[in-house]
Design brief:
With 137 residues, the protein is mainly α. The protein has one domain. The protein contains 6 helices and no strands. The chain is extended and about 55 Å long. The two termini are 36 Å apart.
């Protein structure tokens, strides 16, 4: 493994980008597929976990930390900012990377939009539901 990583790194930026571009979709697909298989393996626990998320989010006792609107606002602001920075689109880096895409600018624009959705909404939701549903076993 060290030899393979060394060859990729020593191959320069273009080789790193090509390798990551080929490997990242596979890793994301396997991660999401595994999460979905876990969630579908016991649908009753998955539905219960999703119900717990909404039940505990709106219980009066959940508001003990402050006013509900302010808490939700702060949580959303913090969550969205984390989501933006988790895939570097909030740093302006992805804009420059997609702007350098001269062959398919429309695909670059599409990727700039879809990456935050997949990363922040799909992967984080699947991860959270898997953690909640497995912790009930």
């Amino acid at each position: 493994m060290t030899f393979i990583v060394g060859m990729i790194i020593l191959g320069g930026l273009k080789k790193i980008v090509n390798y990551c571009s080929a490997l990242s979709p596979v890793v994301i697909f396997v991660y999401m597929l595994t999460g979905i298989v876990i969630l579908l393996s016991d649908p009753a626990r998955t539905i219960d976990a999703l119900g717990q998320v909404f039940t505990y989010a709106f219980l009066p006792s959940s508001n003990g930390g402050g006013i509900a609107g302010y808490t939700v606002l702060q949580a959303m602001q913090f969550g969205v900012s984390r989501g933006i920075f988790s895939h570097m689109s909030g740093m302006g880096i992805s804009t420059f990377l997609q702007g350098a895409n001269k062959e398919a600018p429309a695909m670059g624009a599409f990727m700039s939009v879809i990456i935050p959705f997949v990363d922040t909404v799909l992967i984080c939701s699947i991860t959270g539901l898997v953690i909640i549903s497995i912790s009930n076993w």
